[in-house]
Structure formats: C-alpha cells, structure tokens
Amino acid sequence: MTETELRFGYLNMVLYESDMDMELRAGDLATRPDLSQHSFKSLLDFLVADHHVKGRTSTDLCQLDPRDGSMIIYAEHRSLRRDEHADTTTKPTPATCPICANQLTNVVDFAAQSHGFTFISQNMYPVLYPKNLAPETTTKSALMPDPGHQGRIAFGFHLLQWTSSLHDRDWHNIPLADSMITLQRLAILEEKVLRHSGGYMPLSCEKNGIHGYVSIIKNYGPAAGASLTHGHQQIAFSNIMPQRTFNNCRFFERHKITFNEYLWRENPEHLTIAQEGNVKIIVPYFMRRPFNIIVLPDTNAQHLHQLTNKEVHDVAVAMQKVIKTLHLLMPELGKEVSYNMAIHTGPDNRLYVEFFPVIQAIGGFERIGLWICQLSADHAAAQFRELYQEVTLDGID
Ligand SMILES: [Zn+2]
User: Fold this and answer.
1) DSSP label of 202
2) How much distance in Å is there from the Cα of 113 to the middle of ligand 1?
3) Around 110, how many Cα atoms within 13 Å sit in the side-chain half-sphere?
4) Rounded to whole angstroms, how far apart are CA atoms 350 and 347?
5) 3-class SS of residue 119
6) Ligand 1 center–CA 121 separation, angstroms
7) Contact (CB, 8 A) for 310 and 328
8) Could you tell me which of 48, 155, 157 has the C-alpha nearest to residue 106?
9) CA of 320 to the centre of ligand 1 (A)
10) Local structure of 311: helix, strand or coil
11) 104 CA from centroid of ligand 1 (Å)
C-alpha cells in the first residue's frame, strides 16, 4: 500500500470516530456501520440527521412527460456540485479528489476488501430525500392524480457506493473477490429498503411484498456525466418508477415472459460475446448505440438480493470483464473511457445489467426516437469479442 493509500484509510477511520456520537444519536449506526445490522427506520433517521446535506435537498417535484411517461425530477441544487472536470487545464488526481479529502456525508455501510474498503454514503446533493410525510400521503397516493399539473411528490433517498476507498481502484482493476463484496453490499442495501420500508414506501409489487423502486446506475468518465473521478455507483430508492422499469413491467404484461427471458430466447447466437457460468454477455440485435452490451444472467432473481452466491460470482465476472474490455476498446477508438451502466431489476423483470459506452453523440433524429447507429450489431459483437477474449481477471483461473 502506498503512503497516500494509508493516509486515506487513516483519515476515514478518524472520520468514523469523530462522527460516532452523532451516528449513535441519529440512528444507532455504529462506527463501521453494517447495514445488515440496522433497521430501515434507523437508516432513514440517520440520513435525515446528516448535517452535510442540509440546504442541498431537492424540492421533491416530479413531472411526467405525457407523451411517453418520462419522469423529470427538478433538482436545482445539483448545479452547485463541484465538478472535478470543470477545470480542463489539469487532470483530476487523488490530491484534488473531495472523497479522498473526506468531503463526504456520513457513512451508512462499510465492508473491508483485500485493499482498503468499500462504503456507502448519502449523496451530498441528493436527487431524492427522505421527507417526513404523513403515511397516507405517501403509501397510498404516490402518483396521485394531478389535474392542475402541480407535479408529483418524489421522495426516497439517493446514496453513493464507493467501489473502493482507494482512489484509483474501480471495477476494471479490483480483484474479483472485491467486486463480489461490492455487489453483495448493494444487495444488502437493496433487500433492506425493498422489504423493510412498508409504512413509508408504497407497495411496488403486491405478490412479493416489495415497496418502492431501487435504481442502481454507474457513470464513469466525464462524457458519461461523472462529476467525480473516485469510482462509484449511484443508488436511488424512490416512490416513483423510472420509465425503463415501467416498460420492463409492461413487457411482461404484454408478452407473459420477462425481457431477460425474451433475450435468452430471441437474441441471435452470433451476437453473444461470451458466457460466464450461467451469464451471457450479448450485443442486443436492436443495438441503438455502438457497443451497447447486456449482461444477461439465466436467473429467476428479479433483484440483486435474490441472486445466489454462484450467480453473484458469474455476474461480477461478466461485469468486470465487460468494463475491462471497455478500457481496452475506447482508447483504441480514440475515446476517453466513458460509460453508463444500469442494473435493471424488478418488479416483473428478471435482473440484467446494461452498458452504454459514450461513443456516438445523440443527435436530433435520436431525440425524436429515430436512432442512427454508426456501427452494426454484427460488427460490434465481433470487435468486442476479440478484445474480451484478451481480458483476464485477478482471482479467476
Ligand atoms: Zn479519491
């Protein structure tokens, strides 16, 4: 471990110690908090009590585009965020990183890795915030009729999972065992909020007793909208259902199979990049942007916390190898590595992970739903497969 790494680890330990009193007062979360040991209520209280986000919360206003059901959350405070990429004359480094300098909110979950640790904290400029609303306002009328177009209440919370405490470590260069820990911590959080938030969140799936919606995404690189270089995932827990989640539910209603099963059945075999255990890595036949990739587990799990350990392993292998491949591919294309990732989950949808490398800009045709893709799915699959086969993982034979 380098001196910088040691210093960062030490500073974080100090942070936990100094925040101990507040943490205990706020919600009885201990110094190295383990979410599996705490109730949903204590998590909620802890997030509300965090003074770091005071004055930086959204107005809870959500509007819906009547043409296609897109959700728009108004969050003006987000424009105040510090963008590490704003100064184009210098490259961001650990020395300029606010996370390495401990400019972050209180930590809600912590897990050691082979080097450093992974942890979850509240977004300092949260898109969703746990409002103290009367249960009848929230659990019964999350998307209340809105004839005056005043907007809907959007509430919940917005967390960040830091892949590693060490600045330069992220999915493309951590050992497999560490990426599995990272996924498992997400699964613990997801289980906690989906299954234990009754009375606060409306039901999203009566069959499964699941409340609210969890959205997990990753932005990597400035072109993909990442304002911070320290590797992270974003987690939104909300009463509102993102459009793609809604569309996946609708897909199941219409076709009586999930979108995941549809892809297993219908996507042409020559567009499969590889198979890792029971997980396929594919280019969808309807690829709308170059190298859109889908990681497709053969699973009954709708949510991360329903994956078996073997499935977590296989999904982690596939995710890491796809990301490592993007790190080889994008420089070859003369691009800085930039991609978005989304973990699509239920209800009525079997889990899959989608990657969106930022390679071709979105133009006017795309804005009207006519996607002009400058690479064919066949060529993308062939090119991606060639690089994918060169990739190896630390911790796998
Ligand atoms: Zn950092």
Assistant:
1) P
2) 16
3) 15
4) 8
5) strand
6) 14
7) no
8) 48
9) 20
10) helix
11) 11
Q: Maximum Cα–Cα distance for the chain, whole Å?
A: 60
For residue 5, report the distance from its CA to the centre of ligand 1, in Å.
10
In whole angstroms, give the CA distance from residue 38 to residue 116.
23
pLDDT tens sequence across 50-80: 888 887 776 678 888 889 888 899 888 888 7
Q: Over the stretch 249-298, which tens digit does the pLDDT of each residue have?
A: 999 999 999 999 999 999 999 999 999 999 999 999 999 999 999 999 99
> At 247, is the secondary structure helix, strand, or coil?
helix
Contacts of 12 (CB under 8 A, 6+ apart): 102, 107, 117, 119, 165
Average pLDDT score, the chain:
86
In the reported structure, the alpha carbon of residue 219 is separated from the centroid of ligand 1 by a whole-number distance in angstroms of 15
pLDDT tens digit string along 151-203?
A: 888 889 999 999 999 999 999 999 999 999 999 999 999 999 999 999 889 89
Name residues whose C-beta falls within 8 Å of residue 205's C-beta, 6 or more positions apart in sequence.
346, 347, 348
Strand 152-153, strand 156-162: pairing? unpaired
Average pLDDT over residues 15-28: 33
User: CA-CA distance, 188 to 199, in Å (whole number)?
Assistant: 20
Q: How many CB atoms lie within 10 A of CB 249?
A: 19
- Residue-by-residue DSSP string for 215-239: EEEEEESGGGT-S--S-EEEEEEES
For residue 281, what is the enclosing H or E element? strand 279-282
Distance 393 CA to ligand 1 centre (A): 23
Q: Ligand 1 centre and the CA of 160: distance in Å? A: 13
What is the three-class DSSP state of 303?
Answer: coil
Q: Alpha-carbon dihedral of residues 60, 196, 305, 282, nearest 10 degrees?
A: -30
Q: Which domains does the chain carry?
A: 1-241 (3.30.428.10), 257-397 (3.30.428.10)
Cα-trace Rg, the chain? 21
Q: Is 343 helix (H, G, I), strand (E, B) or coil?
A: strand
**CA 162 – ligand 1 centroid, Å:** 9
Inter-residue contact 296 to 315 (CB < 8 Å): no
Chain mean position to CA 73: 17
Q: Contact, 258 vs 349, CB < 8 A? A: yes
